[in-house]
Design a protein that fits this description.
mainly beta; single chain
C-alpha cells in the first residue's frame, strides 16, 4: 500500500535526460629494455647522439607517446633522447650503479662517473614538468622502480618503470606495491617494465593493504606475447618478461602489442606498446566504478559512503568520516582538484572545504576554498557541476537568510580549488528559497546540442511545504531559465524528510530521484529510502532501496 501511494499525485513534466559524460582520453605507453651497457649488447651506434636519432627513426611513435619507460639505460642515452624529444616531454632518470659498458656512448676521452650511470627512465609527454622519485625495490638489489608524477592525458598520474631481478621477482612485487601505495597519493597509476617474471608470477593483486587506486589490470593479459629470451634458431622470443599495468579505477579497455625493435647490437628484449583510455567521469561517482554513489551525514556526526550498485540501489555503507560532520552541508559533483576524480565539498561552520577523493571514495587531507568576505556561516553551498559551460566546477549557494540563490563560478583546479569570479544571482525574481531544497541532477536537457546548453548542469528545487518539484535549466553565465514543474504535491518534507538527485543511476540517460520516508515511532514503520527513476515524461514506479534506519540520517548528498 505504501509503495503504491508513495509518489501519488505526481504531475507530468518535461523529458528528463542526464547529459552524456565526456569521452575518455587515449593513453599510450612504450616500455623497452634497451640493454644499454651489457657487453653482449654493444650497439653499432657511434655515440649517444646517433643512438637517440636511431631510436626516433626505428620507433617513430616515440615522439607521440604519453608515457615512455626505458630500462638498462645509460645516463648519456637519456640526456640525448630528452634533447631530441624537446620541450613537450619531461622525464626522470635514476640509477644505483655505474657500468663501464656505458663508456661506449661517451664522446669524451675519460668518461665521468655520471656518464657511466646505468639505470632507468620514465618520460611523460608534458611540458608541465614531473615530480619524480626512485625507490629501491629490494634492499640488497641494485635494480630500481623509477617513478614520475605528472599529468597524463589530463589525469594526475604516478608512472613507474620497474626492473626486477629474475631470482626475486615474485617477492619484489609485494615490496614494489608497498612503495606505490605510499607514493601514489590518490594519483592514477601506470606500471610497466622488465619484471623478469611470467604473468602468473607478476600478480598486482597480492600487494600489501588496499590496492593503490583499485586493482591494476595487465594490458596484455589475454595475449601474453613473449618479449625476451631470443632464440637464434627459431628467431623468436621465448619468455614473457615485459608487462604494462593500468589502475582500473582510472583507465579502461587496456591492450598491448609487441614489436621487434632492435636498438642494441644483439637482440635482447622486444619493445612493448600498451594503450588504455581514461575513464570518463560519471556524475555522482566517487568510487570510480561508473555508478553514482550516495553520501550520508548521520546524526552521530559520521559521514558514510553508500557505493552505487546500479538500478538506484546501494551496497553496504563505508565509514569515510569518523566524526565532526554534524551540521555540515555536504555535496559531491565534479573534480575540484584536477586528478580526474569527483571530490567532496563541505561547509563546516564558517569554512568551505574540498576533501580530495584519493581513490575509491577515500578522502584525503582537506583543502580550504578561499572564503568570501562574509564567510560561509549559515549558507547552503552545493557542488552542482558545470553550470556555466566553461568546463570548471561551479558552486550554487543558498544565502544564510534563504531568500537568495547565487552561482559561484569555479576556476581551474591547477592551483587548487577556487571561486575566482564575482557571484551571479540566480533568478532573483523567483522568490524566497528558504523553504526549498536545491537538488543537483546534472545536465537534464534532452537534446543539449539542439538547445545550445550542452554539458551545462541544471537544478531541481523541492518546495518543502507544498512538495512541488521544479526544474531550472541552465542558461550558462546568464543564470537559469524559468522553472517547469516536474513533480507533485506528496513530496512535502513532513512526509519525505530528505530528497536528493545523484544524476543517472540506472544508465538510461535520465536523471533520477531518491527520497526518505517519515519514521512513525508508534508503528515502527517508515524511515526507508525510495528510488524514483527518471523517464521520458514523468518519474517512474518507486522502488524501495533502503529499509529502515534512514531516519537517523541528517542529510544526503
Amino acid at each position: 500500500m505504501l509503495a503504491a501511494g508513495l509518489f501519488a499525485g505526481t504531475a507530468a513534466g518535461p523529458a528528463v535526460a542526464a547529459g552524456t559524460a565526456p569521452a575518455g582520453k587515449p593513453v599510450s605507453l612504450i616500455s623497452y629494455n634497451v640493454c644499454g651497457a651489457s657487453s653482449t649488447c654493444k650497439s653499432s651506434a657511434a655515440d649517444e647522439d646517433v643512438w637517440a636519432d636511431e631510436a626516433l627513426q626505428k620507433v617513430p611513435d616515440l615522439g607521440a607517446t604519453d608515457v615512455v619507460m626505458l630500462q638498462e639505460l645509460c645516463a648519456g642515452q637519456y640526456e640525448k633522447l630528452m634533447q631530441k624529444l624537446g620541450a613537450g616531454y619531461s622525464g626522470h632518470f635514476a640509477a644505483k650503479v655505474s657500468s663501464t659498458g656505458c663508456n661506449q656512448w661517451s664522446t669524451t676521452a675519460t668518461p665521468t662517473t655520471e656518464s657511466t650511470q646505468l639505470g632507468q627512465a620514465v618520460i611523460l609527454r608534458t611540458s608541465a614538468g614531473v615530480v619524480g622519485s626512485f625507490v629501491q625495490v629490494v634492499a640488497n638489489d641494485t635494480r630500481l622502480a623509477v617513478c614520475a608524477k605528472g599529468p597524463v592525458a589530463g589525469r594526475h598520474t604516478l608512472a613507474c618503470s620497474v626492473h626486477l631481478s629474475a631470482s626475486t621477482a615474485a617477492g619484489d612485487m609485494h615490496e614494489l606495491f608497498g612503495h606505490i601505495e605510499a607514493n601514489a597519493g590518490g594519483a592514477a597509476v601506470i606500471l610497466g617494465g622488465d619484471f623478469n617474471a611470467r604473468p602468473d608470477v607478476v600478480d598486482p593483486t597480492v600487494g600489501p593493504g588496499r590496492p593503490v587506486t583499485g586493482p591494476l589490470v595487465e594490458a596484455d593479459a589475454g595475449t601474453k606475447t613473449p618479449t625476451a629470451g631470443w632464440n637464434t634458431a627459431t628467431k623468436t622470443y621465448t619468455a614473457k618478461f615485459d608487462h604494462a599495468f593500468f589502475s582500473s579505477e582510472d583507465f579502461e579497455t587496456p591492450s598491448a602489442s609487441v614489436a621487434d625493435v632492435q636498438l642494441a647490437g644483439t637482440k635482447d628484449h622486444a619493445l612493448l606498446r600498451a594503450k588504455a583510455v581514461t575513464r570518463a567521469p560519471v556524475d555522482g561517482d566517487l568510487t570510480g566504478d561508473g555508478r553514482p554513489d550516495l553520501l550520508a551525514v548521520r546524526k552521530d556526526g559520521t559521514l558514510r559512503l553508500y557505493p552505487g550498485t546500479g538500478a538506484g540501489r546501494f551496497g553496504s555503507p563505508q565509514l569515510i568520516g569518523s566524526g565532526g560532520w554534524l551540521g555540515a552541508v555536504v555535496s559531491h559533483r565534479g573534480d575540484w582538484t584536477g586528478d580526474g576524480r569527483e571530490d567532496v565539498v563541505a561547509r563546516i561552520g564558517d569554512n568551505l572545504w574540498v576533501y580530495p577523493n584519493v581513490g575509491g571514495g577515500t578522502l584525503g587531507e582537506r583543502v580550504a576554498v578561499p572564503n568570501r568576505e562574509t564567510g560561509w556561516t549559515g549558507t547552503v553551498p552545493l557542488a552542482a557541476g558545470d553550470l556555466d559551460g566553461d568546463g570548471q566546477c561551479d558552486l550554487v549557494v543558498k544565502s544564510a537568510s534563504g531568500s537568495r540563490l547565487w552561482l559561484h563560478r569555479g576556476g581551474t583546479p591547477a592551483t587548487g580549488p577556487s571561486l575566482p569570479r564575482a557571484a551571479i544571482e540566480l533568478l532573483p525574481t523567483e522568490g524566497d528559497w528558504a523553504d526549498h531544497d536545491v537538488l543537483t541532477p546534472g545536465d537534464v536537457t534532452e537534446n543539449p546540442a539542439e538547445t545550445g546548453d550542452e554539458n551545462m548542469a541544471d537544478l531541481w528545487a523541492r518546495n518543502r511545504t507544498t512538495g512541488e518539484l521544479k526544474e531550472f535549466r541552465s542558461k550558462g553565465a546568464a543564470g537559469l531559465a524559468a522553472p517547469q514543474t516536474i513533480g507533485g504535491d506528496t513530496w512535502t518534507a513532513a512526509q519525505r524528510p530528505l530528497a536528493v538527485s545523484l544524476g543517472d543511476a540506472d544508465a538510461d540517460g535520465r536523471a533520477d530521484l531518491w527520497v526518505t520516508t517519515k519514521y512513525d515511532a508508534t508503528t515502527a514503520t517508515g524511515g526507508d529510502l525510495w528510488f524514483r527513476p527518471g523517464t521520458t515524461d514523468i518519474f517512474g514506479t518507486p522502488v524501495r532501496v533502503g529499509e529502515g534506519g534512514w531516519a537517523y540520517i541528517q542529510s544526503l548528498a
